[in-house]
Amino acid sequence: MTEKQLADFIERGREVLKIEENGLAAIRNDLDLSFAKAVEMLAGCKGRVIITGLGKSGLVGRKIAATMSSTGTPSFFLHPVEGAHGDLGMVRAEDVVIAISNSGETDELNSLLPAIRSFGTKIISITSEAQSSMGRLSDIVVKTKVPCEACSHGLAPTSSTTAALAMGDALAVCLMDHKSFDDKDFKKFHPGGSLGRRLTLCISELMHTDNIPAAPQQSRLKDALLILDKGRLGLVALTAESGKLSGVITDGDVRRLVCTGQFDIDRPACEVMAQNPLRITPDMSAAQALDIMEAKEITVLPVVTESGTISGMIHLHDLLGKGRLKFADNQRG
User: Fold this and answer.
1) How many CA atoms lie within 13 A of 267 on its CB side?
2) Is 79 annotated as a binding residue?
3) Which pLDDT belongs to residue 317?
4) In the chain, which stretches have pLDDT less than 50?
5) Comma-separated ranges of CATH 3.10.580.10 domains in the chain
6) Which of 56, 72, 124, 122 is nearest to 92 (CA)?
7) What secondary structure does DSSP assign to 137-201, as a single string?
């Protein structure tokens, strides 16, 4: 391909993304009380949330069902054709059905909704046409009308499916907030995932406790650096006479001392240490430690008791393994 062709692809890709952005902006601006009523209905659901849709809308529905199920709202996807051939038996009066169709005129779906209504089951529709057949069969209509599809011919579902997917996310997140669904709850539904595994562990189960790189704060810088090097964690903790953590020196601190001409191996370590450094406690979760490390861009944290004495060290690799993430080692925050 020529350079011009490649450049054209880039430009066209940007156009598509802009059209999709405009679609999301449109449904955001159109969001009204119907959305809030839908969240209220879903929050009060005593059964399951059942998502249904056909074709691309069905694929979107599967994703919404998966998101809701993993965030505390029992949900599953019902294929409208399978529903018409027996799977409708899974629907109960206490359930809430979310039907997805951009046009609201999907025959296979609309032929199913009267039967669902006959059970006493509430129906929320996600569609661009509130007055469509599906809209009229629904208790609540959440409108997702976009200005246009990103497809050149306006035929392939693109902006409309993005809008439906985003609306599903908006519903799911509002439900999470309403239920005060937190990381511990998330762990219960993701016991096999990496997030779930790290959330199950406390710092006390992961931290280094043998040969902790620590030295009295009045030690010579040379002696503190020998301990830092031997500890191989990139940090040496410095303690006051009381035994409490008073500061740290990191590999990065040493580098800065050398670069600024302030490096003197005979200086007291307390003169160059970072005072009142970040620290965590043994009962904190691995997820909390990881959040601190990511926010402050550091790779190692001292672990202290309630009295402030050092009980261990935790490294980013202890939480994630030796992955590709790289963080600075600035303990000064």
Assistant:
1) 12
2) yes
3) 76
4) 321-333
5) 203-320
6) 122
7) T-SEEEE---S--SSTTS-S-SHHHHHHHHHHHHHHHHHHHHTT--HHHHHHH-TTSHHHHHHT-
Residue 57's closest CA among 115, 132, 152?
132
Q: DSSP letter for 267, please.
A: S
The residues of the chain that CATH labels 3.40.50.10490 are 3-181
* Tokens found for residue 203: 């710092």
In a 13 Å sphere around the CA of 109, the CA atoms on its Cβ side amount to 32
- Name the DSSP letter for residue 303: E
CA separation for the pair 59, 45 (Å, rounded): 23
- CATH 3.10.580.10 assigned to 203-320: yes
pLDDT, tens only, 67-122: 998 888 889 999 999 888 888 888 999 999 999 999 999 999 999 999 999 999 99
User: Looking at residue 166, what is its pLDDT?
Assistant: 97
Say if residues 171 and 39 touch (Cβ distance below 8 Å). yes
* Residue-level pLDDT at 325: 35
Q: Does domain 3-181 have CATH number 3.30.300.30?
A: no
Report the predicted TM-score, pTM, of the whole model to 2 decimal places.
0.58
